[in-house]
Amino acid sequence: MPIFTQKDIDKIASCVKAESVRKEQDHFRIKISAEEGRRTLILELYPEVTLGKGKGPMVVVYTSNAHLQLHSCSGYVLSDELGEVTFVGESAGKISGLVVEREAACSLYANVKRDLLSGDFTKFGVEVMLSGVALSLAEEIIEKSKGK
Q1: What is the pTM of this model?
Q2: CA–CA dist 98, 109 (Å, integer)
């Protein structure tokens, strides 16, 4: 079952208070703007693209100074309270996550060791702890995708 259906797009757009949402031929395009910081972010969600020998969902973020992609997205977690969506993917026991915020900001955490998510964050430096905390929200999705 695709993870980027119209229902998913509606939830994601609501969480980040999207300025606009467009259905393109093969993807959804969500525009997020933050007047305070005068930032704009474009989030593109592809339900299925060719990724090497297989197919899978892909998340793309465009900002004025960055272009980020998360291939083989396993799922996402909404946090209405924080105003952000965390998209995650797992490969070879490592997790990558792309966090998109309501304020038109984003963060990327790549190749994070899986066991860091359930470890004791206080044993790590702040620079490592941030990725563990950010991606721990998505641990349930990762467990579900492993069971497939």
Answers
A1: 0.86
A2: 6
Cα–Cα distances in angstroms (integers) from residue 95 to residues 38, 68, 74, 75, 111, in the given order = 31, 16, 10, 12, 5
> pLDDT digit string (tens) for 21-37?
999 999 999 999 998 77
Per the CB < 8 A criterion, the answer to whether 43 and 30 are in contact is yes
Helix (H, G, I), strand (E, B) or coil at 78: strand
Distance CA 133, CA 63 (A): 24
Residue 87 has which token pair?
């998209």
- 79 and 137 Cβ atoms separated by less than 8 Å: yes
Tokens 């465009």 sit at which residue? Answer: 62
36-56 residue pLDDT tens: 778 999 999 999 998 888 899
Instruction: Specify the higher pLDDT residue, 53 or 127.
Output: 53
